[in-house]
Amino acid sequence: MDITYATTNKHKLAGAKQALAGTDINLIAPDKTLPDVPEIQSDDQQAVSVDKALKYYDLLKYPLVVMDSGLFIDELNGFPGVYTKYALDTIGIDRIVQLLARAYTQRTITYFDGNKPQIFTLKLHGALLKEPRGNNGRNYDKYFLPDGRNKTLAEMTDEEKA
User: Fold this and answer.
1) Contact 109/67 with Cβ under 8 angstroms?
2) CB 3.0–4.6 Å: which of 24, 51, 59, 151 could bond 155 by disulfide?
3) How far apart are CA 64 and CA 94, in angstroms?
4) In this structure, what DSSP letter does residue 130 have?
5) 2, 36, 58, 68: which one is catalytic?
6) Are 134 and 156 in contact (CB under 8 A)?
7) Which uninterrupted H or E stretch holds 129?
8) Closest CA to 128 of 82, 67, 84, 71
9) Residue 152 vs residues 14, 77, 89: alpha-carbon distances, Å
10) d(CA 116, CA 111)
C-alpha cells in the first residue's frame, strides 16, 4: 500500500522506511512541499508523533505517515531524546559527541487516516563517532554507527537503511 510520508526533511524518508520494514506499507514522498507544523514539547515520543500526524492530516485531508526521531544517549539517561533538534540547534553535534560514546536512535512512526493513529517504533543501538562520515543524512546520522555495521547512517544508501 502506497502512503504519503509527510515531512520537510528528505533524509527522514529512508529512516521511516527502515522502521516499517516487514509491513506492506510503501512510503512515498509528498507531491508538494509541506510546511513545518508546530511540534508539541513532550517527553513522550509517541505523543509528539501522533500530534504531528493529526496536524498534517488536518492540512492534507488524506492518509499519511509521519515520524519523530531522536538520539537517546545512554550516559545522559536518554537525553536529548525527543529534544534532539533543540540540543543540536543549541550546542551542536560536535559538542554532543565529545561527551560520550554509546547511544541509540529511536524512530516513532505514526500512520493516520482520520480514524485511530497506528504507531510503529524502531530502536537502533550503536556508538557515536568523534568525526562525521557520510553525506546521506544530517546531524547525528553522520556520527551514529549502528552496532554490527561498519558504516554510519549517513554512509548507508537508502536501500541499506531499509
Assistant:
1) yes
2) 151
3) 34
4) S
5) 68
6) yes
7) none
8) 71
9) 14, 23, 21
10) 9
The answer for residues whose C-beta is within 8 angstroms of residue 156's C-beta and 6 or more apart is 14, 134, 136, 149
Q: Determine whether 68 is an active site residue.
A: yes
Residue 134 has pLDDT above 80, yes or no: yes
Q: Is 113 exposed, middle or buried (0-12, 13-18, 19+ CB in 10 A)?
A: middle
**pLDDT digit string, tens, across residues 36-76:** 888 888 889 999 999 999 999 998 898 888 888 888 988 88
- Go through 73-85 and write b for each residue having 16 or more CB atoms within 10 A of its CB, e for each that does not: beeeebebbbebe
Could you tell me the three cell numbers for 135? 553525506
Residue type, 119: I
